[in-house]
């Protein structure tokens, strides 16, 4: 399988603290890559460097290379704005735009990018809500405020919103950690469906979740990539002792 | 063992007494703050109401010897002068607030914030002097416009500071939601952050409007005063606060009464403006809270 994104010697530091300490890793196209590890291991920091979300943290410093296809995304000539239309993100806590309706949450970015207008926007709304398995629940109240939805519905709306700009890669930062088990189940089913069309990287502190949804798993510890491999192999036959200790619950 | 059991209720009683004492002190402080306020309001309403009449809203002043007459010209004048200040002040104040909040993490931003704080504490008569020097001297006469500029000088820093603080209260994840969709910083600020903060931005604008609407000193030598209808924004005009001042220090009983009525109109206008803005905003706030 081809790699969609890769990092070479990626380091991220906040002031004097180095959170990611030189990571070489590939994210395979059309697959789900899970990033696991204990709190503070740098997994979220790593994920956020893949679409330059650290740009707005003044003390954050990113060095090394991050490739999308064959382009280094930290190159001067690739704007972060363009990058983020190709590499979308879903956050830990559902964050729909509170001033907007369900419909406007989805059409906001496509409108800004001039991707669509009129009927095409309506089609985007329906397509993305169907993809995120929310359509049946909200099709009769698209003009209601997004904040009136439940937490799980809001998170699926955020996924629909991210899909509306047709990204190639979807980064998910613990997308189900603020949700109850049944909402979590729906998000996991959704990830399984979405990987047919998208490359997905998901950070999770839930190992069962990583085992259920991912094709590849990366185990991070203290800012380093300890082990990377096929999910089946990593969970059943880890090469590194640290990995085994973590997945068997001896620490973390 | 037994002694501890007996002591505990005593310690608890002391703690509860201290707790009640503190609450009591807060209530006393509240009373000290609120009683003068209610008293002033009551006085204005009670005395002002008894001197209000339809004539007061519709006619021009009569000479003090004649009695009767109204402040219609001053009400129009105040509306125009405050309107000029608000129209000029909102774009500058909100714009400054946006800069300080979104792009101001640098020496220019910090200096601007410091200057706004200094300006917000500026004695209002100084704002009048600024407008006098800039506008009145240049134009060669007092004018409603000069009054508007003087009030805008007081209006802008309040709005800038409240706007900055309103924007900074919006959680970071709202901004990230938009940026992660590939929306650039400026549209993120204008279409996501500013709308989410609009309730507090409007509150800041209301507070600033109420503050400048009651200002007298900056208008004394800018808008000056007049006994006739305003003939244009380049002409001097009467305003309610300056009229209150002029009438209150006059020797005529009947003018004193009109000063009370004017004060009531001013307080009521500010209150109405406030209620109107809040009512308008409440609809949107209900939308954001989930319909």
Fold and architecture overview:
The complex is a heterodimer of chains A (252) and B (291). Chain A is an alpha/beta fold and 252 residues long. Chain A contains ten helices and ten strands. Chain A has helices at 43-49, 80-86, 102-112, 119-131, 135-138, 151-163, 181-194, 207-213, 231-236, 241-247, and strands at residues 3-14, 17-28, 32-36, 60-68, 71-72, 87-90, 169-173, 199-203, 216-221, 224-230. The longest helix of chain A has 14 residues, at 181-194. The model of chain B has no long low-confidence stretch (mean pLDDT 91). The relative contact order of chain B is 0.13. Chain B folds into two domains: 2-49; 56-288, MetI-like (MetI-like fold).
Radius of gyration of chain A: 18 Å
How many strand elements of chain B? 0
Structural class of chain B: mainly alpha
CATH topology of the largest domain in chain B: MetI-like fold
Can you give the mean pLDDT of chain A? 93
Number of helices of chain B: 11
List keywords for this structure.
heterodimer; A: 252 residues; alpha/beta; 6-stranded mixed β-sheet; 4-stranded antiparallel β-sheet; 10 strands; 35% helix; B: 291 residues; mainly alpha; MetI-like fold; 2 domains; globular
How do you describe this structure in short?
With 252 residues, chain A is of the alpha/beta class. Chain A has helices at 43-49, 80-86, 102-112, 119-131, 135-138, 151-163, 181-194, 207-213, 231-236, 241-247; strands at residues 3-14, 17-28, 32-36, 60-68, 71-72, 87-90, 169-173, 199-203, 216-221, 224-230.
């Amino acid at each position: 399988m081809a790699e969609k994104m890769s990092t070479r010697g990626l380091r991220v530091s906040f002031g004097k603290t180095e959170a990611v300490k030189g990571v070489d890793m590939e994210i395979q196209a059309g697959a789900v890559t899970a990033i696991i590890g204990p709190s503070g291991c740098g997994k979220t920091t790593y994920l956020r460097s893949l679409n330059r979300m650290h740009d707005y943290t003044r003390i954050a410093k990113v060095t090394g290379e991050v490739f999308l296809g064959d382009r280094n995304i930290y190159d001067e000539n690739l704007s972060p704005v363009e990058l983020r239309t190709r590499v979308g993100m879903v956050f830990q806590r559902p964050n729909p735009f509170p001033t907007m309706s369900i419909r406007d949450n989805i059409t906001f970015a496509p409108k800004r990018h001039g991707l669509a207008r009129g009927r095409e926007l309506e089609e985007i709304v329906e397509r993305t809500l169907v993809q995120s398995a929310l359509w049946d629940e909200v099709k009769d109240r698209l003009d209601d405020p997004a904040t009136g939805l439940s937490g799980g519905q809001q998170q699926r709306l955020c996924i629909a919103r991210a899909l509306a700009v047709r990204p190639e890669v979807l980064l998910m930062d613990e997308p189900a950690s603020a949700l109850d088990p049944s909402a979590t189940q729906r998000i996991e089913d959704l990830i399984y469906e979405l990987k047919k069309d998208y490359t997905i990287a998901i950070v999770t502190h839930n190992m069962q979740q990583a085992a259920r949804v991912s094709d590849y798993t990366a185990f991070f510890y203290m800012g380093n990539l300890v082990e990377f491999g096929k999910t089946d192999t990593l969970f059943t036959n880890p090469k590194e002792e640290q990995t085994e200790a973590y997945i068997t619950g001896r620490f973390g | 063992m037994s002694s501890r059991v007996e002591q505990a209720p005593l310690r608890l009683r002391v703690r509860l007494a201290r707790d009640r004492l503190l609450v009591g002190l807060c209530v006393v402080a509240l009373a000290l703050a609120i009683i003068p306020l209610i008293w002033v309001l009551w006085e204005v309403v009670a005395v002002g109401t008894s001197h209000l009449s339809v004539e007061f809203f519709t006619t021009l002043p009569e000479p003090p010897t004649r009695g009767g007459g109204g402040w219609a010209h001053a009400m129009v004048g105040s509306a125009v002068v405050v309107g000029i200040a608000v129209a000029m002040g909102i774009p500058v104040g909100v714009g400054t607030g946006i800069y300080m909040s979104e792009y101001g993490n640098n020496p220019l931003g910090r200096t601007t914030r410091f200057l706004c704080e200094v300006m917000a504490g500026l004695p209002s008569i100084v704002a009048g002097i600024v407008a006098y020097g800039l506008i009145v001297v240049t134009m060669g006469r007092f004018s409603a416009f000069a009054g508007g500029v003087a009030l805008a000088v007081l209006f802008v820093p309040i709005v800038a500071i409240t706007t900055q603080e309103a924007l900074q209260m919006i959680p970071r994840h709202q901004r990230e939601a938009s940026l992660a969709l590939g929306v650039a910083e400026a549209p993120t600020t204008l279409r996501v952050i500013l709308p989410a903060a609009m309730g507090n931005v409007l509150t800041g604008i209301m507070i600033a409007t109420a503050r400048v609407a009651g200002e007298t000193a900056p208008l004394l030598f800018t808008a000056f005063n007049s006994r006739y209808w305003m003939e244009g924004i380049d002409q001097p005009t009467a305003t309610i606060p300056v009229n209150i001042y002029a009438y209150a220090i006059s020797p005529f009983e009947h003018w004193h009464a009109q000063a009370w009525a004017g004060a009531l109109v001013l307080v009521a206008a500010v209150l109405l403006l406030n209620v109107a803005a809040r009512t308008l905003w409440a609809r949107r706030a209900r939308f954001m809270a989930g319909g």
